[in-house]
Amino acid sequence: MLYIALMANYQQSSRVNDALQYIHSDINRNLSAATLAAQARYCEHHFHRVFHAVVGEPVNQYVRRIRLESSANHLMFNPQQPIIEIAEKCGFRSLSSFSQAFKKQFLASPGQWRTLKAKSIAPPYLQDPELASAYQRIYSLALPEVQFVHLPDRHIAYIRHLGYGRAIKKTWQLLHAWAIAEGLEDNNQLGLHHSNPTQTPLDQCRYVACIEIDAPLSKRGLVNSTVIPGGLHARFDFSGKYGELLPRISKILQQWLPNSGLIATTTPAFALYKKNQFLTSDEKYQLSFFLPVSFY
After folding, report:
1. Coil, strand, or helix at residue 120?
2. Nearest-angstrom CA–CA distance, 290 and 203
3. Spatial separation of the C-alpha atoms in residues 136 and 133, rounded to whole Å
4. Residues 232, 118: Cα–Cα separation, whole Å
5. pLDDT beyond 90 at 18
6. Backbone φ/ψ region at 230: left (φ over 0), alpha (ψ -120 to 50), beta
């Protein structure tokens, strides 16, 4: 009976993950509950219950929050882009509805956020003493030279993780065990960053542990598969230890991106590991961080 219950939970998570992937791959398209229920292969009424149980919040609330977080990113890091364009890119059909929802979420209008809040808000990760120490240690260091690359789409097997901290290690250990069982332990490891650590509290950051694969999985459960979209990316090569990556990502977003002449897209950034700090005893990493960018 326990095995049956576990398999049922894995099946629910897998199908909800299909809806989550649909959301995060393009937040500008139709993300109604009916559309997402079809992606998860549930009737809409049942989908509402299952999504809330798996994700922890109602589907419509989740979609709105993701869109607002993305719009806040664009307002902060794409200072030349008109507010109405940001609203439309993030799935809002009118400036008035966007402004109303934004002010309710962030207690500031989009314009106030851009001109005042973005300059005064300290990154939430500084509330973590270890990450704050890493910030003080490495934030003054210069960024490595940026490289621009056009990446292909990548098939990945993945496990989602809510929150950014050492608990990610357990998620990586699970995925690594799966990779060993499937003979994929030597495949590329990627960390997908759905959340911006400069504005999202650590316990709400959405991280995805990924193994690159050749084709979609035929059997899914705890481990699911999807595609990371390709396209133009800015690449930064880093090495360091646990706690030092988020300050470096923060510096890319806060200093490099606004002065680059480019615009961040709505697809997630990711780290391609040569050495994974969550799977090594010394907690050191060597990686390339890829930020998706565009000219429009």
Report:
1. helix
2. 23
3. 5
4. 26
5. no
6. beta
Give tens-digit pLDDT for 153-191. 999 999 989 888 889 999 999 999 999 999 999 999 999
Select from 3.20.80.10, 1.20.1050.10, 3.40.190.10, 3.30.420.40 the CATH code of 147-294.
Answer: 3.20.80.10
Q: Which residues pair with 21 in a beta bridge?
A: none
What would the two tokens of residue 153 be?
Answer: 């789409």
Q: Which two tokens stand for residue 282?
A: 């010394």
Q: Please report, for the chain, the start and end positions of each structural domain, with discontinuous segments joined by +.
A: 2-120, 147-294
Task: Give the separation between CA 33 and CA 24, rounded to whole angstroms.
Answer: 14
Q: CATH number of the domain at 2-120, please?
A: 1.10.10.60
CB 225 within 8 A of CB 199: no
Alpha carbon 291 to its chain centroid, in Å, reads: 11
The residue whose two tokens read 């999985």 is: 217
DSSP 167: T
Exposed/middle/buried for 150, CB within 10 Å: 0-12, 13-18, 19+?
A: exposed
